[in-house]
């Protein structure tokens, strides 16, 4: 790493990093946990794809199970891409549709009643819905205040600021999805004496873009130390199909669709990761800005947002007191 800050600070040696992670997986799963393989929830996204490929290398594909966990609002492409990857790796897959469990929990009904209190016109199953943060983080300092956006069958879009009570109910209800998936992953892991492998990267774990005891409920986190842009470097090295590598990262949680950037991160990953790494290495905002073609105040805003998200989600990373 040079003394002068550049984007290249994010560049990995993918071969060495792959071997290091695979060694840690074998040590952790076989040596420490005394398990016989790994289970990965796969969605056709870049993170779960990389973890599945790493697990297949570390344990052998015969000791890995990829579990597809769609529900009635999942994008059909997710299942298609997950199957392509698993087949290319020679990994066994299991399909578990969790819609019935979510109906039993009242996931959809509880969420939709909160949406309708804000936007009465919203019609479940006919309208799309998503929640988003302000997208102009580089342009002005704005709070992380969510808006509810619904889209009718004719393309009509209605957007309103989400009051705290409705925001909390929508998120609490939606989190049944991640927690139901966690339960199913542990079912398939425990019946085989396997470990559950997490798919959260550094962006998700440290900024709180995960559900406690949901997608955060895992036995080992093989890519939790890597920025999103570094996950793409590993994906290319591991031969993850281009269809997956070129797919825009989404939450695949809300019926209106939502990219990870508009739902949570607010700026593209290449800028977020570079600014974040520079900040971690105690590089002055002005130096980061010069290297990235930004203004120092823009870098300062992004750093403030990183710090705010970390503070606001500390409880997610805490073990029980």
Task: Provide an overview of this structure.
It is a single chain. With 321 residues, the protein is of the alpha/beta class. It has two domains: 8-103 and 169-249, HUPs (Rossmann fold, 3-Layer(aba) Sandwich); 104-163, no CATH class. 49% of the residues lie in helices and 10% in strands. It is built from 13 helices and seven strands. The protein has a four-stranded parallel sheet, with helices on both faces. A three-stranded antiparallel sheet has the order 4-5-6. Helix 1 (14-32) crosses helix 8 (228-238) and helix 11 (269-280) crosses helix 13. It is globular and about 50 Å long.
Give the helix/strand layout.
Elements: H1 14-32, E1 38-42, H2 46-59, E2 64-68, H3 76-89, E3 92-95, H4 99-105, H5 107-118, E4 128-132, E5 147-151, E6 157-161, H6 164-190, E7 195-196, H7 202-207, H8 228-238, H9 242-245, H10 260-265, H11 269-280, H12 285-292, H13 296-312
Parallel strand pairs: 1-2, 1-7, 2-3
Antiparallel strand pairs: 4-5, 5-6
Helix pairs in contact: 1-2, 1-8, 2-3, 2-8, 5-6, 11-12, 11-13, 12-13
Which labels suit this protein?
Rossmann fold, alpha/beta, 4-stranded parallel β-sheet, globular, 321 residues
The number of helical elements comes to: 13
CATH class of the largest domain: Alpha Beta
The figure for the number of domains is 2
Reported for the largest beta sheet, the result is: 4 strands, parallel
Fraction in helix: 40-55%
CATH superfamily grouping of the largest domain: HUPs
In the CATH hierarchy, the third-tier topology of the largest domain is known as Rossmann fold
Distance between the termini: 39 Å
Number of strands: 7
Second-tier CATH architecture of the largest domain: 3-Layer(aba) Sandwich
Radius of gyration: 20 Å
What is the N-to-C succession of helices and strands? HEHEHEHHEEEHEHHHHHHH
Fraction in beta strands: 5-15%
